[in-house]
Design brief:
Low-confidence stretches: 1-44, 56-85, 111-121
Helix content: 40-55%
Strand order of the largest sheet: 5-4-3-6-7-9-8
Structural class: alpha/beta
Number of helices: 14
Length: 323
């Protein structure tokens, strides 16, 4: 219900020209012209005009002139009564409602023309499609940050790896119809890039010791075989034959792990990697995260592939191969 036009226009003129005092006098006049019981019997139109006013305006009119003051909240800004601003908010909400109604109708028309049905679920899914990816990434960041707060040395990063780091991890690798092993996938930043590759691998195995990350990986990627186990014991649990994996992508915090654990992980990984395969890892430091003693024991070499300044924190990607 809107306020009568003559009341609203008069109030605006008075508030603009005469100020708040004249507006309070105008309310006093409105209060004097309230329909009484006799007026309701003699002139029903006066009652209908009274009921057509906003409820907050009727409550103001019922107040005494002493109550119509700024300290009781009748005026939000000089010369701008509260109901004027409320009418503006109602008009803005109505405009937004009409806009989304038009969008929904157009989406429903497109869905119907494409032969996908006219169900409201299809319309809602299409209308929310532009917002789905950012919201999903924010949830992954929140999950990653929560796990980092629980175990900083175990997670080793505040946020998940970026897409630029994921591209650098598979740069120069021929993974078409190959098997790939991922150690410490986290929320699946590298896995998402592997799945979306046009000539991607045929089988992807993921080793994740964190149950929260493992459950998220199973939810996001149903085709990826995820194992909730420590990477040091992966050799006895993976359904892979020796020298059957093309590449191993490592997201483990190797710098914060013991030398014996790093040695066991690298030994198990190179038992699975093919002769022409590679072990890829990244680090936030200036050198390769694999200790030199492990290089000597396993007869492996490492070189830096790329530096990713766009990642947070900036990271360097290393390829490790047999000497």
């Amino acid at each position: 219900m809107e306020c009568p036009v003559e009341w609203r226009s008069n109030a605006r003129v008075l508030s603009r020209e005469l100020g708040k005092t004249s507006l309070r006098l105008h309310f006093r006049h409105c209060m004097a012209s309230r329909p009484t019981a006799e007026a309701a019997v003699s002139s029903p139109s006066s009652v209908s005009r009274w009921r057509s006013c906003p409820r907050n305006l009727r409550s103001w009119v019922r107040r005494s002139p002493q109550d119509l003051s700024d300290r009781h909240g009748c005026f939000g800004l000089p010369g701008k009564p509260v109901w004027v601003r409320k009418d503006a908010r109602r008009a803005s909400a109505a405009a937004r409602s009409r806009f989304w109604r038009i969008v929904s109708i157009s989406l429903a028309t497109n869905v119907r023309n494409e032969g996908q049905g006219d169900h409201i679920s299809d319309v809602i899914s299409l209308s929310l499609q532009p917002f789905r990816l950012p919201m999903q990434r924010m949830r992954h960041v929140a999950t990653f940050t929560r796990e980092w707060l629980r175990a900083p040395l175990r997670t080793a990063s505040v946020v998940p790896s970026s897409s630029s780091l994921a591209r650098a991890m598979v740069e120069g690798l021929d993974l078409q119809d190959a098997a790939v092993l991922e150690l410490g996938p986290g929320t699946g930043a590298f896995t998402e890039h592997l799945v979306s590759m046009p000539a991607g691998p045929s089988r992807i195995y993921a080793i994740e010791s964190n149950p929260a990350f493992a459950d998220l990986m199973r939810t996001r990627f149903a085709t990826v075989e995820t194992f909730t186990v420590d990477a040091c014991r992966m050799r006895s649990l993976l359904p892979c034959s020796p020298r059957s994996v093309k590449a191993v992508l490592c997201g483990l915090p190797l710098l914060s792990m013991r030398l014996s654990s790093v040695h066991r992980i690298m030994k198990s990984a190179f038992e699975l990697i093919q002769d022409d395969g590679e072990f890829r890892c990244f680090t936030y430091g200036p050198r390769c995260p694999i200790p030199f003693a492990v290089h000597e024991r396993l007869l492996i070499e490492s070189t830096r592939v790329r530096f990713c300044p766009a990642n947070f924190p900036p990271a360097s990607v290393y390829r490790v191969f047999r000497a």
